[in-house]
Amino acid sequence: MIKTVRSADRRLTGLIIFSLAVVTIRMHAADDQFDPSDSIPEDSYLVEVKQTSWTVDGDRLRFQGLAMNEKVSHEVMVVHRLSSEQEKEERRALIPSHLLIEGELNQPGQATNFNQFDYRTYLNRKNITYVLYTNEIEDIDLAPSFLERAYKTDSLRQDLLNYCDRIFQPTTGRYIKALIFADRRELGAEVTETFKKLGIIHLLSISGLHVSLLIGMMDRIMTGMTVTRESKRLVFLFILPVFYILAGFGISIYRAAMQAWIRYLSDTLDWHLTSLDCWGLTFCLAVFVRPVIIFSVGFQLSFLMSFILLFLSDQAFFRELSGIKQIVLVNCALFAFSVPVLSFHFYELSWGVLFLNSLFVPYVTYLLMPALLILFVTSPLLALTQFGLILDELVRWVIVIMEKASLIIDQAMSLMVVTGRFSGTMIVLWIVFCILGLLQVEKSKKLISTIPVAALLLLLINVNTYSPIGQVMMIDVGQGDAVLIKEPFGRGSVLIDTGGLQVWNEKEEWQIRSNDYTLGEEVLIPVMKSLGIRTLDQLVITHPHWDHYGAMSELIHSFPVKTLVMNDFTKNHSAFRQSLSQIKEGALNVRIIKPDEPVKLTDQLHVIHDNWTDQTNENNQSIVLLGRYGRLDWLFTGDIEEVREKNIMKHFPELNADVLKVAHHGSRTSTHEAFLKQIDPDYALISVGENNRFGHPYREKIDQLSGYPVSLFRTDENGGIRYTYSDLKYLDNYLQKKGAFNVMTDNDSKESNDENSF
Questions:
Q1: Contact 661, 636 (CB under 8 A)
Q2: Where does the Metallo-beta-lactamase domain start and stop, copy by copy (predicted)?
């Protein structure tokens, strides 16, 4: 059997489990007590700036800081809208240590859709309680002592980053800041996205690999200088904490540096700790000091991957394998054990890591990283000399070659696989299968013996995509419509409208942000991927209003869509045609619905063909759909108004439905009494933005619905609305008993996402 750990390691494992239980209880207790006010009235605050978080993007300045006045003191995220291009350049050129800010503290926005990124939780786990939206911002000349600063070493780190900007070319400077000082703010979005798709994004962050390389280089240098082993230990005991501070207290650098530091301390004090002992103590210290860190994806991946490496290296069967088999097994094991973490947080993963690690890791380890370290260390002597400039240029070409190679590979093949979010049961099964695979290798000494286990893992990775549970989800897109339908067993997926964020003023070039909030990237695509949807079979645009199609072109550019469905009126609408022109010709199939044509989009969904030809009202051009999902009939009405409703009643006098998507966001011009009486729904769903400028839904419409035995759900109060069902009778009975309809939140109010607010 696999030799797990010795007796001392078993005791340490018990300590880790106990520490996790204790900090989890403590953390939940703290969460229960944590209930800050939704907002604090506008006031003036003295804000100490965390300079290394200072980010200027388009017309937005954002940074972390400590906001203080005589009433409150809070760790905050400051969001400031820049008023001019001149102010933008000034804020880029000089980062102040303190600012006097007049503004209002608000709680960060929460996720309003299932499996959507939750900004509030993200900031709270970084001990940031509020977002400070500014009205006025003023530099202030204040220089408190080192001990009085909230961010004591941050200014020193910022000085080093500024030094990189002054001395090196932009390309080499960006990579020195990323790989030596863990500052990835200036790495291009294209580069980071490409490395993410290839599964090697970890190479752009400081990790145990970089720390080991740094230690190895310093060890060889000191050996060449005939420094004794004891003296080298003392040097590393001093250098490692300093490096951790200068690298910005990142979790990966903490894990690697602290683990090495404990090992050197053990050797110095003759404690005889093993590598697993050092790993375990590093883990315990992290979770005791900051319990919420266990939710960090960086923490989970760093500690899990390092444990797998240490564990395998301690096994006799692993040492007996040939060098190539060891490399293959390590790559496969690291990939396999990372899948549950990546799937839970990102809903997708890249299988490219299985072979690209062997290509890029040596390149970074033995060429790029040493070159960057040599360039940085020698820069005080060689900077701006002819030799220094040549060295800088050579390092730049090393970076350019790596970036171009990654782009070529990314364009040549698709390596990303959508998995959906793994459930707790799936995570447990996955880990069990991975352990069985290691046991099989130990038993047979042959990697090919893991094929049956690999087949089980392949089945498990497709569970969400081909799940027996179907879903109909009204996605909260603010003031707009977006309804997602995913049928059981992967039979098909349909999105009815996309929503759209209205832009009231055209932005100048300097105001355009590279990392702005979009419905497609931030809401629609994550929600679909979380369900395991890999291709959208049909995208239906009911009518050409921006709040129904605004995210269409972005969605189609970023996610595979087979068929775009619309009617002639929508196709010929001038504003819609402009959006349609942004999509590459031939990129997808376009299907035009005729008003008198009976059309089945799927076996479960068909178009209501009431032969409507009057084009005087754009809302009444909406495609109306009737579907059967689970035990319920669904009527999706777009934005039709009373006259179109009467026409539908005329052509389909027997029409009724269990679920009504209330037309036009609850406007007074829609859902008239006779129509509501004929449809006779048990459930009514309203997609509407909170505090929208149109006043939707109208009070009289809500009162009208309340006069019927109807369960009402609305996105401005409930967030995303989800209905689950199954073709399997026993499973469907369970879902109905459990409650087929679920909402994201029962709160009467919701904060908008910070990215959307500004």
A1: yes
A2: 479-690
**CB-neighbour burial class of residue 535 (10 A; exposed 0-12, middle 13-18, buried 19+):** middle
- Count H helices and E strands in the chain, helices first: 30, 22
In terms of Cα–Cα distance, which of 553, 565, 479 is closest to 520?
Answer: 553
pLDDT digits (tens, 9 = 90+) for 528-567: 999 999 999 999 999 999 999 999 999 999 899 999 999 9
Residue 60: phi and psi, rounded to 5, are -125, 135
For residue 704 the two structure tokens come to 């009208």
d(CA 631, CA 736): 10
> What is the 3-class SS of 150-172, one letter each residue?
CCCCHHHHHHHHHHHHHHCCHHH
Residues in Cβ contact with 225 at an 8 Å cutoff, skipping those fewer than 6 apart: none
Task: Give me the helices (H) in 470-605, please.
Answer: 519, 525-530, 546-549, 552-558, 568-571, 574-580
Rounded to an integer, what distance in angstroms lies between the CA atom of residue 463 and that of residue 459? 7
Angstrom distance (rounded) from CA 644 to CA 528: 32
SS3 290: coil
**Cβ–Cβ under 8 Å, residues 153 and 245:** yes
Q: What is the pLDDT of residue 716?
A: 93
* C-alpha span between 348 and 473 (Å, rounded): 20
Residue 136 has pLDDT above 80, yes or no: yes
297-313 and 323-346 are packed helices; what angle lies between their axes, rounded to 10 degrees? 160
Question: Are the C-beta atoms of 201 and 71 separated by less than 8 Å?
Answer: no
How many Å apart are CA 77 and CA 65, to the nearest integer? 6
By CB atoms closer than 10 A (0-12, 13-18, 19+), residue 239 is middle
Are 731 and 469 within 8 A, CB to CB? yes
On the question of pLDDT at 4 being above 60, the answer is no
**Residues in contact with 632: Cβ distance below 8 Å, sequence separation at least 6, in sequence order:** 657, 658, 659, 682, 683, 723, 725
Q: Are 694 and 713 in contact (CB under 8 A)?
A: no
What are the tens digits of pLDDT across the range 405-428? 999 998 888 889 999 999 999 999
CA–centroid distance for 421 within its chain: 12
In which order are the strands placed within the sheet that holds 605-607? 605-607, 625-629, 632-636, 659-661, 683-686, 711-714
Give 683-730 as a DSSP string: EEEE---TT-TT-PSPHHHHHHHHTSS-EEEEHHHH-SEEEEEESSHH
